[in-house]
Amino acid sequence: MPRSVNNVASRARRKKVMQMAKGYFGRRKNVWTVAKNAVEKGLQYAYRDRRTKKRNFRALWITRINAGARLHHLSYSQLMGKLHSNGIELNRKVLADLAMNHPAAFKAIVDKVK
Are 75 and 61 in contact (CB under 8 A)? Predict the structure, then answer.
């Protein structure tokens, strides 16, 4: 009895990986073994960097809030402490946006907690 191989599924699997390798340079885009390794590594980087992006944005927001707070003679930690003690629940993303784009609104918040 001849050996049964599911060519349809294995071809589809390879085709999916080769599709993901589109745009890669050199043999990474058209040689199966090289492309498979490149795609796997790319997916690892994507997984890792989705988490890193969150850290980077939080650090950016903190930097912007600190810059805005120092214009009003407060440090970042003093401002955040006073916000929490006064029960003002604004997240860092919103505070950073106010500090950058709406300085009057940010000043009103700082005056409220002082």
Answer: no
- pLDDT per residue over 46-101, tens digit each? 999 999 999 999 999 999 999 999 999 999 999 999 999 999 999 999 999 999 99
111 Cβ contact list (under 8 Å, min separation 6): 72
- Locate the domains of the chain by residue range: 8-113
Helix (H) or strand (E) holding 46: helix 32-70
| Spatial distance between the Cα atoms of 100 and 61, rounded to a whole number of angstroms | 10
Distance CA 21, CA 30 (A): 8
Structure tokens at 27: 């043999």
**What's the helix, strand, coil split of the chain in %, to 5?**
75, 0, 25
d(C-alpha 25, C-alpha 57), whole Å: 30
Q: pLDDT category, 29, cuts 50, 70, 90?
A: very high
Q: For the domain 8-113, what is the CATH superfamily, name and number?
A: Ribosomal protein L20, C-terminal domain (1.10.1900.20)
